[in-house]
Amino acid sequence: MSNYFFEVLRSGINTTFQDKGRFHMQHLGVTPGGSMDLESFSIANALVGNTSDEGVLEFAYQGPLLKLIKGRTKIAITGNVLFQIIKSNQETIKGECNRTYTLDEGDQIDILATRQSAYGYMALEGGFDIKFFCKSVSTLSRAQIGPNEGKKIKISDKIKIRINSKNKKNFSTKISKKNKSTIRVLKGPQFDYFAKESQKDFFSKEYKISNLTDRMGMRLEGLTIKNTVSTNIRSEGITKGAIQVPADGQPIVLLTDYPTIGGYPKIANVISADYHFLAQKIPGEKISFQNVELQEAEQLYKEHLNNISEIIKNIKEIN
To answer: DSSP per residue over 42-92, as a string?
Structure first.
């Protein structure tokens, strides 16, 4: 185990370790979990020279305040995040996302807030010194699975880092900011359970994101969707991005920590290429849905992955 570590002076909101997720365990009732925004997660790791599988810190709305007690490290913050670095001599540096910074002993990283978005990420060169559980370091706090005893980061925790950085170079990349309010979806397996008028409304009316939103799901508010067959089905396997419609007719989008089975009819499923846009939405924002076919969804996903690769390919050394 490493002797280099941060002390947590402020935990932030929902600060956890995350990676791509813990797969092949849904048959045991364990959802994959993982980072809410895989694009921001991947870019954070690439900036500090990590593989795409390395664990990072994910935070929501307000991030942590961390003090580097021992060691030297290089960090990158991604997302749309307001943060600052407080040097040991009290000099304050206004942080920029999508670039690296070096932290020395006594320095603090103060992640103040996400801006017009929900989630942000912090990666370290060499990664955090944390234990794997079933080949992943993602935290499922409801099930208390993952590092830190499966719990969110809290004040006075010690966050160990794997290496003492000797790299003096810094790197950055450019990301075009997008705020997409139309989310593309595939029709769900029970799409025909819903009245024809409600099917039209689903693809033509806006829905507001409610305050009842977390890593598991996002409740929407809008026109009631009428079910003409049955408001309950036999529980079946479910996927990230599934849009369930319970008896009250108000949709629920299942997010990254979704349950492995569900018994509500599903009107649609968010496509993978648009999932990160939806995950970054905050309560009060309005969204609409657009239907696409499977072949188009697959092509859009390929383009999405190619776009991430281009951003990573364009990482450059800076002074």
So the answer is: HHHHHHTT--TT--EEEEESS--EEEEEES-EEEEEESSEEEEEE-TTS-E
What end-to-end distance do the CA atoms of the chain give, in Å? 33
Residue 285: what residue type? E
Phi-psi region of 21 (alpha: psi -120 to 50; beta: other; left: phi over 0): left
Question: Around Cβ 204, how many Cβ atoms within 10 Å?
Answer: 11
Residue 59 CA to residue 184 CA, distance in Å, equals 26
Q: What is the pTM of this model?
A: 0.95
Residue 310 · residue 176 · CB < 8 Å = no
Q: What is the pLDDT of residues 94-137, one digit of tens each?
A: 999 999 999 999 999 999 999 999 999 999 999 999 999 999 99
Which residues have CB under 8 Å from 154's CB, separation 6+? 8, 11
Whether 111 and 186 map to the same domain: the answer is no
User: Per-residue pLDDT tens for 139-187?
Assistant: 999 999 999 999 999 999 999 999 999 888 999 999 987 778 999 999 9
The answer to whether 3 touches 162, Cβ cutoff 8 Å, is: no
In this structure, is residue 161 part of a structural domain? Answer: yes
Domain limits at 227?
182-308
